[in-house]
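Hi C.,

You asked whether I'd gotten around to modeling the 182-residue construct. I have! Everything is below, sequence then structure, no commentary in between.
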Amino acid sequence: MRPLLLALPFALLPLCAAQAHDEHEHGSLGAHEHGTAQLNVALDGQTLEIELDSPAMNIVGFEHAATTAEQKAQAAAAQQRLDKPETLFALPAAAKCIAAQSEVNSPVFADAAPSKAHEGHEHADVDGHYQFQCDNPSALASIDFAPFFKAFPGTHKIAVQAITGSGQKGLEATPANSVLKF
């Protein structure tokens, strides 16, 4: 399944190129934009995979290794929420999907150096990889990201790219428009 997710950016390159052209004319979305997360979604047979890439600011409110007791508590709470993907992504009950794997990484969750520096500012990301096993994947007609927005109100937009049995999809999800339909 990993190769399918790795192929996703290449498969959606024409969509990204068109979007980049629009963004160039209307203001650029940087690779690390506070308030915006990226999600890649792939459905292959009974396996649904979701990969998350978000600035840590959206998730915990800061972008460096947690140093104070308050920051450590915020980071631990965020990591616990991120480790429960069934509470972040609303899948149709009829699809009978269960979370099979969850992996979340970020320098904000450990006493470590920031992931990258940019012009003297710290910019750390949160990366997540989730895998669901669905007993009835034909009933997987949508994913609702509303629970993610509720859990992490610092996230205002999610750029979603998906490959499903019905083809390629894209969505700029917001709290008001949070459902990706397959």
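If it helps when you're writing up: Strands lie at 36-44, 47-55, 97-105, 117-118, 121-122, 125-134, 142-144, 157-164, 167-173, 179-181.

Thanks,
B.
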